[in-house]
Amino acid sequence: MKTLYLKLKGRMMMPIIFLLLFGLAFYFDSLTNIYHGYLNILRSPSVLISDYLEIGGLGATLFNVATIMLINIIMLHQLKLKMTGPIFAGLLTIAGFSFFGKNIFNTIPIYIGIYLYARYQKLEFKSFIIVVLFSTGISPIVSFLIFGTGWSYWIGVPAGFLVGIITGFVLPALSAHTIRFHKGYNLYNIGFAMGILSMLYAAMLTTMFDFDLFTFGGDTNEAFHFELLLLTVVMSSVFIIGGYLANPAVFKKYPKLMRRTGRAVSDFIRDEGNDISMVNVGVMGLVSVVFIVVLGIRINGAVMGGILTVMGFGAFGKHPANSIPVMLGATIWFLLVPIVTGEEASVGLAIAILFVTAISPIAGRFGIVFGIFAGFVHIVITPFTYTFQGGFDLYNNGFAAGFVAALLVPIFEFLKKDVLEEEEV
Length: 425
What we know:
Layout: H1 2-10, H2 14-28, H3 31-42, H4 52-55, H5 58-78, H6 85-97, H7 104-120, H8 129-135, H9 140-148, H10 153-182, H11 189-208, H12 225-246, H13 250-258, H14 268-272, H15 274-295, H16 301-312, H17 320-341, H18 347-355, H19 360-366, H20 368-389, H21 396-415, H22 417-424
């Protein structure tokens, strides 16, 4: 029993999460409904925001999440890689976005492209594992070319797979350069790199083929709000309890973690340990729940994706001290929108309250006030970046966060120059 617990601790409870999601899929729906719903998911164009809860139902969506998680867990096992902060963040981000946009059909070509890049560079595939885990944020380009263009499968399938492979091939080199643009203050760096590629794809498709990319997103489904809220609370509790069982003194160490800026690369598992990382993952899940409940946000596929991503990065840069300020900044604009425009805030703005934590290192480095301002700027910019990249980059908030960090960090460094110099001394 103790050996089993140690294995689960070393893998950050991932087997438990997989089994929970897989079991719930068949608890909530019949095998027939899951089969048909899953086929609908695989045949979806999958661009932002394609809510798989609406397209396939809860059972099929959970099956999609569990399936993709299993494939990646097996891949990590075969590559003999230990759990680290970025790997854990990548796995939960994959799980989150499998609620809206990722499926096994549109991810494989991108993985193949990265594998070919590794072979071309004569390097081990596992040396690019972080890029691999986050790469599928651009997977909708594969599904769109096959199912969203109206082309025959004889054209769409080869085009989708070819573009997916090319995307995977160029992504490692591109993401290595984009981190310099925002100096590590955007935790979704690969999302920023994919935004640049998506912008190119969107420009080509609209100018060469006259596609209206903004008609493909579809409706969201909030019917499973309670079930997913309860699932979040249960998962968060599992992580907190697991961290406590691993080390009953873990809460005494927690203040030390929250003093970290979170700037990339902040691997909490490597630097602080599994116990405190598990607790932080669970706490970040509960922080998400509090914001959702207080603001009256209903959980759909995209919101659930945001929750799991926030939790994942609880092992890789995010904690309450650096995340809550930027979330508060985003909340200010979310609450002002009905007053300023007379209309309800969009689903995209609600999601951005969670994904704004991409720039949490800004609050960690420069303080609460600067963090609130950065969060406000981020949520204002995010809708415009979507129009640039056409919905192919699921990590649109990562795309926006790159610009926010590049714009604000030099200004904040100038305004706090004296303080930062004292900290360095």
